[in-house]
Amino acid sequence: MAEEATEDEKPKRSIVKLILVILGGPVLIGAGFAGGMFFAGSSTTPSDEVLKLIEQADPKNQEADPELNEDGTPKPNTKEVVEEETFVTSYYEFPEKMTTNLANSNRFLQVGLSVATQYDEKVIENIKTHTLALQSDILATMSSFDEASIMGKEGRQALADALRDTMNERLMQLENFGGVENIFFSSFVLQ
Fold it and tell me: What is the pLDDT of residues 131-170, one digit of tens each?
């Protein structure tokens, strides 16, 4: 069996226990404090931490987050617009509607015409100067179309293309430059 401790060993054990209890508590507390400071890595006091949090919450002290709007909502994803050189389109609408008979038909076609160009204002000035000659050519071209050929989107586009070509031919004869790029119908009535 186990040997019993001698009378001399008992006080030594009790003294060692007493020393361990007395020194052990403060050593453990000190080690815990040192470990906490080491892992926290901060030398600021709790009141300093609270002040830092208050300053961060104040919108005056915050830098604007590029990902957020002023009200704190996320900004939408956007793409950059590629800047290309664009030309200004000028329009001119003939003041009067033009009416003519259609080829091989008893029906009439009445249109309101607008002209578009991306050239300078000189083209519009030339159209205004030669309106009477252009109207005569426009009516002659319109009367060469029959009812079936102007039906539908393709038929109207074919008429617009023919009118554009007619106007450019006349302007080339009179001014040595056409410049009419598109014809638009502001009204299109078949009676």
Answer: 999 999 999 999 999 999 999 999 999 999 999 999 999 9
**Phi and psi at residue 173, in whole multiples of 5°?**
-65, -40
CA distance 149 to 102: 10
Domain ranges, residue 121: 90-190
140 and 53 share one domain: no
Which residues fall within 8 angstroms of residue 184, CB to CB, at 6 or more apart? Answer: 91, 113, 114, 115, 116, 160
Identity of residue 117: T
User: What is this structure's pTM?
Assistant: 0.57
pLDDT digits over 61-81, tens only? 555 566 777 776 777 777 777
Q: Write down the residue that tokens 């704190």 correspond to.
A: 72
Tally the domains of the chain: 2
Who wins on pLDDT, 12 or 59?
12
Same domain as 56, residue 104: no
Dist CA 102 CA 108 (whole Å): 6
Nearest by Cα to 185 from 117, 113, 137: 113
Q: Taking Cα atoms as reference points, which of 114, 109, 119, 110 lies closest to residue 95?
A: 114
